[in-house]
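Case study.
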Amino acid sequence: MPTLSRRFFITASNPELFLQWQPQREAQVLSPLSPTQIQKQRKVLESKLISALDCCTSVIQIKQVHAHLLLQGLDQCCLVLAKLIRTLTKVNAPVETYPRLIFEQVRYPNPFLWTAMIRGYILQGSVSESVNLYSCMRSVGTRPLSFTFSVFFKACGAAQDVSLGRQIHAQTILVGGFASDLYVGNTMIDMYVKCGYLNCGRKVFDEMPDRDVISWTELIVAYAKNGDMESAWDLFVELPVKDKVAWTAIVTGYAQNARPREALEVFERMQNEEVETDVVTLVGVISACAQLGVSKYANWVRDVAESSGFGPCDDVVVGSALVDMYSKCGSVDEAFKVFEGIKEKNVFSYSSMILGFAMHGRGHAAIQLFHDMLKSEMGPNHVTFIGVLTACSHVGLVEQGRQLFAAMGNHYGVAPSVEHYTCMVDLLGRAGHLEEALELIETMSVEPNACVWGALLGACRTHRNPDIAQLAADHLFELDPNNLGNYILLCNIYASAGMWDKVSRIRKLMRVKGLKKNAGYSWIEAKKGEIHEFFAGDMRHPMSTEIMQALEDLLNRLKANGYVPNLNSVAYDIHDDEKKHMLTNHSEKLALAYGLLSTDVDCPIKIMKNLRICEDCHEVMCGASKITGREIIIRDNMRFHHFHNGSCSCGNFW
DNA sequence: ATAGGGTTAG
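After joint prediction, the assembly is written out as follows.
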């Protein structure tokens, strides 16, 4: 007869159990009990053992609990044994030895015990053995649980093993009663989606008799991750009861698909419907604001975060996202204030701030922060090194960059990736060490990609080296044949070397391939925070006439000061007059003219652009900052340019 | 037991 003994409590390895010891109850136990009381005591004992197992973190502790269990005559108690095996799996005890031994001593394993064993084998990578156990379980006539299937589906999803997934799917139908199980259905959708079979997941969803918000959200996320926001939105609209997770999925979906305005719109609706905002929602919205780069929205979302109790001081993830957001909104000083306010900074906070400094050309600040980070004994990761190498590059700290690059693998255990090599090629290339950069590419430990060769090609333009440029271009045209930018760069390099026959050959190649320039556009935040968007030659704006006039006036004043339009920036093989016209219409120039017309004189003019700023526009911005006395901040797809009194923070290299 | 999250180079 199982009884609770004093010994059990006192020798229990776990202090929590000891604290739970109640002498009154023990007195009861020692007196004779009725069968129902015995049953009740047994239940109490079982739950004590289970909670003891919850606290176990090593095999030795589990063995002690096991010893008590045997002492109490519970060697056939599947409930506790299943928990014991799950706990052993959690502490990574090899399932084949100790757990297997326990399992084989049980005469009538229940489905929970079978499932615990199956799960153990799956988690330890023995999928075939788990399938084997499942067959045994079926052959002795034991009915599986929903959980049994979900264990398999989870494993298939993680291993992207759709063929096993389909077999288990067939089993859920074969065994009967599981095809309509909500939990099984949901884990099955997830399995198909993770294996890349979104349509199969959809089919499961469509055939489910009962669906809950989880089923819907799984599919919404799957569509969003697939870049199909239209299907995601359609599902979202149909979803009868939307919870905060579903809302967040759609907001984040837009943010991750580079549609920040829609993300913000949906978030605003979410707030109007008074759905609770939590950290995960905020992170998605903050990322959308970072992409948009508009201060009004940035400040708004920060207020929302703070009033929801997740300000930068409260939550490190929100704080780090805000650092990134303010950097990308052009306010690197504000980013640093937020950074300083984060109570428990982590590697994300530091990396974001280092990248922020690097992006704004404040290389020394970035490197200083990197050293502060090391002092606080925080381990840098691969992104941290991208930030700090970029920073070195922008300040021309070649030797320091070399040392950091060498140290990353040797001292910090971060193996250099293609991205880090790209930074190094950029660093060496900018400083004019083209041969060394080429040598680095040729001896790379990983396969060079288009970015690496692109960095080299960019450096060849600055340092006018057509030979190495040709080599880089050969690789680029193979790796990334439809990227027009590479052809233009090569053209410029040949043109400045006077190699006109090569120029016309490349131009012909571009024509034959029918490569078209990406639609470049710029946007600017007006006084009240509204966004004005411009394409090249755009006349849609209600103030178009004034804008064109202001631009012409500005260019005339610049020309009087010696500005000559830089025709190299136009890739097309057209007449110079036409080129001049095209240059004049570049979207960032229109945005600048609008900014001059309609923003406060003491505020910087902030322009965002989806492509890299061209040389001519860069020159115009420099000149405009001098003539007008206005500070101009431009974010292109690479970095920030702060124009002040005739010069740019990028030092004319970008 | 099952659904949503932050930093990435030319």
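Observations recorded in class. Residues 1-24 of chain A have pLDDT under 50 and may be disordered. Residues 522-648 of chain A form one domain. We will return to this complex in the next lecture.
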